[in-house]
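Table S7 (text form). Paired inputs.
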Amino acid sequence: MIGYSEAPRAWGYTRGMARVLGLSLTDAVVEGWLSRQELGRLVDACQTCDKTDDCTRWLARNASAETLPGFCRNAPALAALKP
C-alpha cells in the first residue's frame, strides 16, 4: 500500500486533489507512470503549504473538477498527469 505515515494530512490532501481530477495516485505509481519519488515530492510540497484551511474548504465543496484552485502548489503537476 502506498501512503505517507510521516505526513498523513499532506498525503490525504494530495490524494484528495488528485481524486477531484479523476486521478488515482496509487494506481499511477503501481502502473508506472508516476514514480514513488515524484509522488513523494508532491506530498512534500503539500506538507509545507500554508493553505490547508483553503484546501479543506475547497475539497469539501468539490467532488470533481476540471482544474484545481490556483493556491494548490501541486495543481500544475497533477494537471499534467491527467490523460
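Next pair, protein 2 of 2.
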Amino acid sequence: DPSIQTTELEILRPVMTADLLVLDDLGAEKTSEWVEETMNLIVNTRYSEKRTTIFTSNYEDNPDNTDPDSLLFRIGFRMRLRLHEMCDFLELDGADYRELPPNGGVDELLTLAKMRSRASRKPCTT
C-alpha cells in the first residue's frame, strides 16, 4: 500500500539520517522479508551517505552459512558483504554480566572473565 510505504519511510528517515546509529545485537531479530528489506535499506542508505554506524552482534563472523550460530547464517551473504565493505570488525571478549550471581559485583565479573579466558585458550603443542 503506497500510503503505508510513505509512512514507513517517514518513520525510518531519522534512523537513516542520524549522524551516529548503533544497531545492537545484529542477527538476533526474527527474520522476515520485511525485516531483511528494511535492514538493507537502512544499511545501504547509511553506507552510500557515509554515515557512521556501529553494529554489535553476539554471532561469530565466520564464513560457514550452515552454522546457525554464525553471523552469515543470521543476516545473509549480501548484508555480511556490505558490513565487510563498511566496517572494521572488532572482537570483544569478556564476561557476561547476565551470568553474575545476585548482588554480584566487579570482583565476580573479573573472575568470570578470567574463567572464560582460560576456557577459550587452546593447548600449545610443538
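The beta strands are 20-23, 52-55.
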